[in-house]
């Protein structure tokens, strides 16, 4: 992933630098470095910088160093490096080290004997090289994900040269912002667009940071409005992986209601040649996740069953028409509860035809259920004892629950 504070400390030639605080956050991504020359830094940084404090151009007493940490925390700096020696900042005060730990800011001590010109040259070169490497990795991964590579042999050679190793299985996660229409329905066009752009940038940075903390090997890929993650299928298990993704979705969008982040997960892929198939699975799972507003927002392709077939049908009007043909007559708009018979049919099928359990499930008397079943059979012209009708009805109910809110007006009940 991106160059981190820990990576900086491991660069050849920077051995004299030492970490003094903020150990849990040494995997923060370093966007660039900044040498502080003014009393404060808030108006001079954008976030993600490794801030160097020398004390040469401005006195740096204890109170000023504390202020710099607070400002850096508010701006989201990657870390802070304080130069120490006999001439300017002799030692780092204990209160500064304590505050850095409290704020979660990696705090590094650099002796003045290690020349700044050498340090910035080493870090700048590493950042440029790392950025170039990641750009090339994203390029070849994008080609393999989309199937638009000129030669498989060349793609493999490039992947090996760029240290992209797919020996272990990976799961491809496709994510997309949802409820965008709600955003534009509730805000002015300018406000909605600004919020959407901020949310997109936030999600991108959040996902990148999360992949760093998780120590994933593959970079974040962006394809249009999609965010693509390649998560190593580790021994921790699929359930723990899903929990990580659920937490990621909730945390990423905490500040951007009503926008939410939906996700689709592929089956495991084991090689570069399987990436395009994995992306296809992840995108189909994502489409299903977006059609299920009551769900958690993450859909696993391996668990969607018959929806694999339905999601492969490009003309969704065929799907909606099938549903309407099977259970459309059970919609009774003139009644107080227009979907009562549909819900009754669903309960009966869920209980495998056991009418007593179905009545308990619905909280009604069994005689009431018998009457409803008679109406279902009369209006559909089918018997619930017919296995083919039960199969068709089960699929139609699945469509109704998963896609009914996406139906065109002319197909709606």
TrEMBL record:
- Domain (PucR C-terminal helix-turn-helix) spans 341-399
Q: Gene3D superfamilies of this UniProt entry? A: PucR C-terminal helix-turn-helix domain
Limits of the CdaR GGDEF-like domain: 153-288
The residues covered by the Purine catabolism PurC-like domain are 8-126
List the residue ranges forming a coiled coil, or say none: none
The protein's matches in PANTHER family, at most eight in alphabetical order, are given as: CARBOHYDRATE DIACID REGULATOR, DNA-BINDING TRANSCRIPTIONAL ACTIVATOR ADER
Q: Which family does it belong to?
A: Belongs to the CdaR family.
Recorded protein name is Regulator of polyketide synthase expression
């Amino acid at each position: 992933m991106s160059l981190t504070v820990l990576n900086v400390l491991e660069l050849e030639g920077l051995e004299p630098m030492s970490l003094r605080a903020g150990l849990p956050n040494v995997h923060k991504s370093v966007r660039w470095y900044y040498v502080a020359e003014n009393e404060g830094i808030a108006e001079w940084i954008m976030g993600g910088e490794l801030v160097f404090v020398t004390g040469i151009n401005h006195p740096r007493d204890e109170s000023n160093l504390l202020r710099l940490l607070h400002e850096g925390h508010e701006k989201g700096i990657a870390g802070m490096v304080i130069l120490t020696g006999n001439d300017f900042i002799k030692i780092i005060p204990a209160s500064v080290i304590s505050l850095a730990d409290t704020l979660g800011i990696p705090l590094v001590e650099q002796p003045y004997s290690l020349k700044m010109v050498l340090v910035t040259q080493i870090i700048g070169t590493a950042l440029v090289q790392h950025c170039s490497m990641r750009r090339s990795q994203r390029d070849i991964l994008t080609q393999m994900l989309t199937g638009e590579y000129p030669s498989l042999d060349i793609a493999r050679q490039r992947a090996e040269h760029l240290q992209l190793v797919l020996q272990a299985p990976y799961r491809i996660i496709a994510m997309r912002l949802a409820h965008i229409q709600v955003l534009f329905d509730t805000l002015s066009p300018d406000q909605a667009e600004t919020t959407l752009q901020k949310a997109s940038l936030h999600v991108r940075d959040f996902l990148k940071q999360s992949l760093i903390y998780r120590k994933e090997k593959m970079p974040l890929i962006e394809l249009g409005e999609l965010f693509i993650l390649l998560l190593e299928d580790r021994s921790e298990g699929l359930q723990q992986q899903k929990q990580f993704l659920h937490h990621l979705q909730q945390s990423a969008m905490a500040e951007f209601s009503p926008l939410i982040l939906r996700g689709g997960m592929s089956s495991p892929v084991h090689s570069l040649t399987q990436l395009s198939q994995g992306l296809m699975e992840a995108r189909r799972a994502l489409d299903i996740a977006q059609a299920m507003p009551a769900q958690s927002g993450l859909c696993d392709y391996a668990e969607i069953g018959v929806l694999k077939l339905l999601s492969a049908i490009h003309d969704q009007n065929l799907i909606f028409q099938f549903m309407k043909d099977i259970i459309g007559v059970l919609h009774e708009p003139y009644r107080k509860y227009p979907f009562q018979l549909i819900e009754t049919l669903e309960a009966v099928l869920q209980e495998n035809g056991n009418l007593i359990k179905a009545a308990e499930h619905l909280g009604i008397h069994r005689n009431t259920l018998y009457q409803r079943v008679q109406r279902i059979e009369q209006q559909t012209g089918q018997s619930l004892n017919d296995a083919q009708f039960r199969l068709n009805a089960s699929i139609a109910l699945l469509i109704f629950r998963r896609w009914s809110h996406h139906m065109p007006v002319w197909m709606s009940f």
